[in-house]
Amino acid sequence: MGAGGSVNKYVYEFTEGNKDLKDLLGGKGANLAEMTNLGLPVPPGFTITTEACKAYLATGEEPEGLPEQIADSLARLESSMGKRLGDPSDPLLVSVRSGAKFSMPGMMETVLNVGLNDRSVDGLAQQSGNERFAWDSYRRLIQMFGKTVCDVPGEEFEHALEEAKKAKQATSDLDLDASDLRQLVDVFKTLFAKHTGREFPQEPRDQLDLAIRAVFESWNADRAVLYRRQERIPADLGTAVNVVAMVFGNLGSDSGTGVAFTRDPATGAPGVYGDYLANAQGEDVVAGIRNTVPLQDLERLDKASYDELMSIMARLEGHYRDLCDIEFTIERGKLWMLQTRVGKRTAAAAFIIASQLVDEGLIDLDEALQRVNGAQLAQLTFPRFDLSGEPEALAKGIAASPGAAYGKAVFDSARAAEVAAGGEPVILVRRETNPDDLPGMIAAQGILTSRGGKTSHAAVVARGMGKTCVCGADDLEVDVVSGKFTVDGRTVDEGDVISIDGTSGCVYLGEVPVRPSLVVRYFEGDVSPDDDALVAAVHRLVTHADAARRLRVRANADTGEDAARARRFGAEGIGLCRTEHMFLGDRRELVERLILARTDEERQAALDGLMPLQRADFVEIFQAMDGLPVTVRLIDPPLHEFLPALEDLAVRVAVAHERGEDAGKDEALLAAVRRMHEQNPMLGLRGVRLGLVIPGLFAMQVRAIAEAAAECARQGGTPRPEIMVPLVGAVQELETVRAEAERIVAEAGVSGIPIGTMIEVPRAALTADQIAEAADFFSFGTNDLTQMGWGFSRDDVEGAFFPRYLELGIFGVSPFESIDRDGIGRLVRIAVDEGRTARPDLKIGVCGEHGGDPESVHFFEDAGLDYVSCSPFRVPVARLEAGRAAVHSDGSDSR
Ligand code: PEP
Ligand code: MG
């Protein structure tokens, strides 16, 4: 019951709706109404709302008033058509079609020809003068109704149809005549009775009501549920139901049905694209039972309908100001529009069409920005496999870092570097990676792991490098010792060539050919917008996004080379320079000395060895980012990550003992690794805790930063370093580090280096007012904040049980990928509010992986952050999304 005891309105005539009522009328119903109001030839009908569906699904019964409202609308439909539903002498037939807010192609149900029965089939034959058509329509009704409404297995109808064709030695359904179809109707009715235990319903209104119920229920069909989860369509929207007077494309060769686009949805090229099938009903086109002809052929077959269709399509494009797709039927030379909607398109077409529509004066640039998105731009930047050769698929893992790469499978980092140095492309295959594998990862074309998710080490590092990565392919049995992996009984040895697709997660055997991306070459500065229409469109929209956005965009980069690339890609500084890679390679020796030091002098000597090396790294980065801010994060990971693995050391020591040799340093290292072992290293001695426990470690890094800045300034540059402390949970931690850092910076004769903190421990977010007193800036480490906020180990859970969580709908997307607005997002908002209250000039950014995720960028805009920081390759995506977020004021869903 609605307010005041009146009954809710559940049924809308097409003349009552419009395109903006998609929530209530579904996409199809809203657009049918829009076309009706435009005066286009739409068969009359009405829409039952999503509200009615929701009420039905909640109670299992039609809500109060619905049956009467349907009866009223049906009566109006009958009077406008001059026919009655199922009238034995001249029946009105209707289609009953699903239509949710978001298009869910083929996921829900449709029943055509409702109103036919044993008597009205004769009336239809007489009125149409076509007996064959009448019986064909009736057999279609029993088939669709049986399958959709009463769960009769569809194959049984198909089988009976095939048998009928075989008996006539016919190849096409068109070869069956009226008497064949009449017999087939009998067979279908028997099938129906066998499976349902009752006769096919003869009462037209019963048929209609049952069909409407079936469409309601199809909202919760397994495939619809799965589709919604994948497409992240909310589960509680419900579907509308459209009841439309039937028009027939199967009345003879002067009838037919087709689908069309107002531009090419693959390339964006202007012009009309479509398929037409003469003498057919709607589902025949999609089912592919006969070959369609290009829409252009319709001009020859029926010029008047073709011309009318062209003018309607032009009108629709002008009205919707976008590419539209349509379905139409021609009944004996009369054109009817059955559906239109803003059509889906490829990423390339989205950019090209948006730019064309601006040129055509249909939309402005702000609107054009809403017509594209970061996910599409990301797709355009990755090289793609050409799968036309149908390569052999070996396994599927998590698509962790997009791109397409092939190379020889190699199972060891050093070996990967060696093979790559010999000029051979390499795919580094590991169970999982750790900082040790970095040289191999750098040398490889791509990285494949059998464990770990989208924020595992392999994934984060690979994305940072713009390198293709598939991780968590857990069907692979990786044996790094023997240098092979097995999958499904097949073995891939070192040196065998494999290909990995970081966009789909697929792993293939052999070399799959790759196409390079022009769009990346444009961002690199190698291709000009004048050279290519797609590049021109991307350039235009990203440039406009830059002008429109409020959020700044920085990059996560920790080498001079990455910093330079990030700058070419449009980064306005570095938001996260992770310093841990600066402890690898030749420098490990020094780290080992640091860890094994027994005296202050020994430790200081190791630190003194590291300092100039770090300083040189910083000089390179500050130069690449001259004039722009560079946030350097002090060392974060537990130090034992820089030592050899316990198993390796144990073996080395045992072998030495066996041979009666002195295991020397290995023995000391083994003892250190055992001593430093942690059950939960991510919650252990890392981040600021290292700085507070290991004397001189942070001091060395701060000195290297300050001296590098001084050196760059001496050379005439404008370095703008910022020092960032990781993993702070209490202001006291930050105060201690800050006091020491300020002293060292002053000693180096440098001034104005901001000192701030990551907010990545929930306690930091909840005490942000206190922490802000000691911080010049905050940067949200949303990887750790998600890990600690949910209590999810970021290196384990994505491969281990996220697939199940996604299946159960606990979340629609991994919270490591897209920020969990309700939980982790709330921590962010609290910290922003409290931090700014305590310190109004506090600069706030984000440098977790979410900084480059399109949906998360919108959240960070909304939360009032100053900048997002992401891997260099995602910088253009973040620029575009930040622009979209800034102009996205109407709250409309741009899906
Ligand atoms: C984070 O936690 O979000 C972050 C950026 O730090 P890291 O990924 O290096 O732990
Ligand atoms: Mg972190």
Please write out the topology.
Elements: E1 11-13, H1 22-37, E2 45-48, H2 50-59, H3 66-81, E3 84-85, E4 91-92, E5 94-100, E6 110-114, H4 120-128, H5 131-150, H6 154-167, H7 178-196, H8 204-218, H9 222-231, E7 239-245, E8 256-263, E9 270-278, H10 282-287, E10 293-294, H11 297-301, H12 303-320, E11 324-331, E12 334-342, H13 347-359, H14 365-370, H15 374-381, E13 384-385, E14 392-396, E15 398-401, E16 404-410, H16 413-421, E17 426-430, H17 438-443, E18 446-449, H18 457-465, E19 468-471, E20 477-479, E21 484-487, E22 490-493, E23 497-501, E24 506-509, E25 514-515, H19 518-523, H20 533-548, E26 552-556, H21 560-568, E27 574-578, H22 588-596, H23 600-624, E28 629-633, H24 646-658, H25 664-676, H26 688-693, H27 697-714, E29 720-725, H28 731-747, E30 755-759, H29 762-766, H30 768-772, E31 777-780, H31 782-790, H32 797-800, H33 802-807, H34 824-838, E32 843-846, H35 854-862, E33 867-870, H36 875-887
Parallel strand pairs: 3-4, 16-17, 17-18, 18-19, 26-27, 26-33, 27-28, 28-29, 29-30, 30-31, 31-32, 32-33
Antiparallel strand pairs: 1-2, 2-7, 5-6, 5-7, 8-9, 8-11, 9-10, 11-12, 13-25, 14-24, 15-19, 16-23, 20-21, 21-22, 23-24
Residues 726, 760, 781, 783-784 line the site of magnesium ion (MG).
Determine and state the CATH class of the domain at 3-245. Answer: Alpha Beta
SS content category: alpha/beta
Q: Which molecules are bound in this entry?
A: phosphoenolpyruvate, magnesium ion
Residue share in β-strands: 15-25%
CATH architecture of the domain at 3-245: 2-Layer Sandwich
Could you state the CATH homologous superfamily of the domain at 3-245?
A: ATP-grasp fold, A domain
CATH topology of the domain at 3-245, by name, is Dna Ligase, domain 1
Shape: elongated
In order across it, which strands form the biggest sheet?
Answer: 14-24-23-16-17-18-19-15
Instruction: State the share of residues found in helices, binned by percent.
Output: 40-55%
Mean pLDDT: 92
Low-confidence stretches: 890-895
Radius of gyration, in Å, reads 33 Å
Distance between the termini: 33 Å
**Biggest β-sheet, characterized?**
8 strands, mixed
Q: Please give the number of β-strands.
A: 33
Tally the helices. 36
